[in-house]
Amino acid sequence: MLGATVSIALVLLVLPLVAGWLGPAWVRTLGFAALYVMLALGLNIVVGFAGLLDLGYIAFYAVGAYTFALLGSPHLVQNFPAIAQLFPNGLHVPIWAAIPLGAAVAAGFGVLLGTPVLKLRGDYLAIVTLGFGEIIRIFLNNLNEPINLTNGPQGITLIDPVRIGELRFDRALSVAGLQLTSLQLYYYLFTVLALLCVLVCARLQDSRVGRAWMAIREDEIAAKAMGINVRNVKLLAFGLGATFGGVSGSLFAAFQGFVSPESFSLMESIIVLSMIVLGGLGHIPGVILGAVMLSVFPELLRHSVGPLQTQLFGRTLIDTEVLRMLLYGAALVVIMLYRPKGLWPAPQHGVAPSTITSTPTQASADS
Amino acid sequence: MGSLDTFLQQVFNGLVLGSLYALIALGYTMVYGIVNLINFAHGDVLMVGALTALSAIAAAQGFAPGIPGWGLMLIGMFAAVPVCVLLSLLIERVAYRPLRHAPRLAPLITAIGVSILLQTLAMSVWGRNPRTFPQLLPSEPIVLGPATATVTKLLVIVLSAVIMVALLILVQRTRLGRAMRATAENARVASLMGVNPNAVIAATFAIGAALAAVAGVMYAALYSVAHFYMGFIPGLKAFTAAVLGGIGNIPGAMIGGILLGLIEALGAGYIDQLSNGVFGSNYQDVFAFIVLCAVLILRPSGLLGERVADRA
Fold it and tell me: In chain A, what residues touch B187 (CB-CB under 8 Å)?
């Protein structure tokens, strides 16, 4: 157990240095992988633990990102003279306040979404949450008049990078003779936070709340009969899942320095969903596996398939963007048909922990 | 133009939009009625139909440049319908049938995957950029009293009405229709009565796909553009229409479609005035979502659906 932990820690520590050798793009991929792990864990709370299929999850990511962007960029100061007067040196909310604020706003939206959909089941819930996600995106795209809140399709630029004390994450850092680039610094930050998220999720899973979620996932009416306050538990699922999204979104805004509604489309929601479906719905190691696989594979494919195609066929038959989407779509269909519980499902202790995507082990007589 | 004229114009526009939504909604509602599945990929079938028609028309124009607009339109539809039907049958057979008895979320997730695969297919075949759909029918405005229309818009309304009547006759008066209604009610007992549920389900998907293909061609003709992502929004709105009318209910889908079209057209037309300029017509798509949420929260069985008990 200790050996495994130490080796994993060593691998995580050394990985960006190795990747840095191969090129900065790979370090960026690792950073995004860590970010996606956090997102996937958040969606896992809603879909995997509580069984509530949420197709608009990326809206919380968007809300977190835009909140951080508004709090740490010249946008508000430029567009609202009242704020410019209050903050003559520009609005630069430090991250220890900005990230919790982003998370809180996202959580608020999560509860806002959760409240009207409490009595909706599977299919309808999915469509309504999809609609919510799209509504958020449309609003982000159009809230540039009469008051310019989100700057519309152009997005918000010049977002502050992460700053911890004197350490600025957008500059390289020399430590013990090693030169760590900004991308590598961000990777370390994201990995530490992702590990924190894993810890939180693991504790939640074994807590009363976690068990309550799994109870309503398996059979809502039975759970209600057992005294679980289904309404509050569901709202908690939406809220906590949204919090994870909000934190990831804030980090994303700082990392990229720029946010626009384009990054928060339905496709992104589906990508996060396919990560947890592929990895193992409801199982934390599976979810991490899925997130890492589906954020690293497309990059690997892009770097290998592109030149490979030109070598073999003289030109690119399939665009790498198309290949990426193909991967996500195929992952969803193939996994549902052949391994509905995911690549790394939770070990069964008598009753399958995730019967929402596969038939129960004790098959009753045909329906 | 007086305000009554604007109103009537918007009503007409709403009827045009609504007819399209109704056609697409029928596909959703029939499939849901019979296998309890939201065919997430239905909107993308529409998209494939539109793009197939585009290619067929381009090919026909290259082959025989003298064909009139009407002929090309027919060629487009006759090309789109079989392609969409075959595609839909393939999808049903490969992706949905194995999961027919799986818990609810599995077919839905698969449907999402199929939707993405269809978009990928379209991107590879037709490219990622929007393609112009040629102006096949005369575009001079026709004045109908206070409203102006075009041939294309009138075609949409007329063709949709004809198809919907034909579908009602099919469902109410033919053996296949009876088999469909029986299978929707209880597949096991229907099979005891000599109905082949697999065949009936396949037929349902096929009919839905054919309707989507026609709707797709008309959609492309109306907006003069076709691209790989064009099926998403109409698909979502048509689903809203189906839910509005009562999912599983065929007349409901028709009424829901028309109603949603009217709501959207009137809303987009008047939102500027109603919100004092805060919200413009670029929020048009939001209407459908708001209607969807409102219906699902307030009256989930829809306008014509039966009240269902709260199922877990």
Answer: none
